[in-house]
Amino acid sequence: MILDLLKKRKSVRNFTGEEVPEKVTNYILDAGRLSPSGGNQQPWKFGLITDKELINEISDIAYKQSWIKTAGFLIVLCTYNVDKSCGGRGIQKARYPGIAEIIDNMDDEIYTKLHLEEHQTKIPGTHMVMAALEHGLGSTWVSYFDVDKLTHFLNLPKPYIASEIIAFGYPVNNEKITDKKSFDEVVFYNKF
């Protein structure tokens, strides 16, 4: 079933604007809530944006990507950096020992923002996209936006930041499913 859904998934940038039932949005949010996270920290909040005026303003914060305005709703994936006692920089230093000293001495704000972009909300967001597809909804990830401006706009308390936006809605159906590389092009066994 998952592979069937994945074969149908496409980035949708033209939605009908039709209202999505609350039971469907709750189902999608629950798919995110049930996602795994490092150390089971669950360092996230999911902002469900259904108000058209707010969607329009977020579209402007996303560097005036007007297609976002056609979405039935947005989910803003928000996160914070996990507590230092749960690994934090130690995990990154172990992953990149060649730059451990740089990681250790990096300004907290810069480290946090760069570190958050890499993960924390990718898994729940992916689960939400699949849950939406199960209900006939299309979606597109939006990473091109002013993070600080959106964080302030949504009144997120510190230490949360808006890390990703996903636009959802019923597709107008003019987007094509893009070709994917073949199995042999993306898989290797044991060593490259």
UniProtKB/TrEMBL annotation:
<protein>
    <recommendedName>
        <fullName>Nitroreductase domain-containing protein</fullName>
    </recommendedName>
</protein>
<comment type="similarity">
    <text>Belongs to the nitroreductase family.</text>
</comment>
<dbReference type="InterPro" id="IPR000415">
    <property type="entry name" value="Nitroreductase-like"/>
</dbReference>
<feature type="domain" description="Nitroreductase">
    <location>
        <begin position="6"/>
        <end position="170"/>
    </location>
</feature>
<keyword id="KW-0288">FMN</keyword>
<keyword id="KW-0285">Flavoprotein</keyword>
<dbReference type="GO" id="GO:0016491">
    <property type="term" value="F:oxidoreductase activity"/>
</dbReference>
<dbReference type="InterPro" id="IPR029479">
    <property type="entry name" value="Nitroreductase"/>
</dbReference>
<keyword id="KW-0560">Oxidoreductase</keyword>
<dbReference type="Pfam" id="PF00881">
    <property type="entry name" value="Nitroreductase"/>
</dbReference>
